[in-house]
Amino acid sequence: MRNDLFLFIGIIIFFFVLWIYSGGPNNPISFAGPYITPITDVGTTQVGYGDTKDFGSANDYNSSSGGSFLGRWFGGDTGTNVPAADQSSYAGKVRIDGGNAGTTDLQSEYLILHSETDAPITITGWQLKSTKTSSQGVIGTGARVADKGGVRSSELSPIVLPAYGEAVVSSSRSPIEDSFLETKCTGYLDENGSFTPSLNHSCPDPVDELADQYGGTTKTYDQCYDYVSTLGSCRTTFSDENSVPNSCQNFVDARLSYSGCVSSHRSDSDFYGDTWRVYLGSTRELWRTAGDTIELLDATGKVVDVYSY
Predict the structure, then answer these.
(1) Is pLDDT above 80 for 23?
(2) Is residue 176 situated within a structural domain?
(3) Is the pLDDT score of 173 beyond 80?
(4) Helices marked H in the chain — which ranges?
(5) Rounded to an integer, what distance in angstroms lies between the CA atom of residue 33 and that of residue 41?
(6) CB neighbours (10 Å) of residue 135?
(7) Average pLDDT of span 61-70
(8) Domain count of the fold of the chain
(9) Domain extent for 7
(10) Closest Cα partner for 309 from 125, 111, 126?
(11) Is residue 93, in this structure, part of any structural domain at all?
């Protein structure tokens, strides 16, 4: 019995000496717990036993509500990883930033592409494609200054996404035939609510326009001022045409309109916005109401980003 006790104590001493010789408390594995490679916080690079693994940032994880996930290698319904050979040089520079892909209304179906870089990027020739149904749409050309009706193909040009700008990519046809860049005047095009989502309604202030451009008499100016003060931004509708003088009606028709606004402000330094309205021209919904995965492909067919919902 005593010999067994001495043998047991001897074994403990042997392993203690071996532990001290291998680094003792300074060895990282001493506090690794049950894991061969300790789990570290998100945002750090794990260094330990085995291969190095970069856990990225909190944005590299797919959410259960769907989202853009190129480079998100963990969990969720993100499908398979995108091989490096299939990734575009624009990956990480443009991402799919949500939208309304799950609707059953063609006119309301859209995705948003957002630039993550300070350099302009030409997106004409890029594709959006469902990996589930193979439905797809190709981004064509557009007008930097929209026309209020009629195709102006001679004035269309490649769509260039501005630095940190975005493109609202609708599946349907454009209400004005063309894809176009929003400006400080395009809100006038949406007076009847024909755009989804609504256009930017930050047109020049009607009262400021009156002060700068009215050509009538002092008396009619005061009457026109009272009327113009009741107008909202990007609105031209007369509630009662008989309540204002002809010179005021002429001013509103000529200046408080889309064409009048463009004529007056096209040379302004802040005339152009940073949002494109892009239309794929489909006659049917392109994306599933749920459970779809959409790839954004560059002009060479490489994967820029992937969106799942």
Answers:
(1) no
(2) no
(3) yes
(4) 2-21, 206-213, 218-228, 246-255, 258-265
(5) 16
(6) 18
(7) 46
(8) 1
(9) 2-31
(10) 111
(11) no
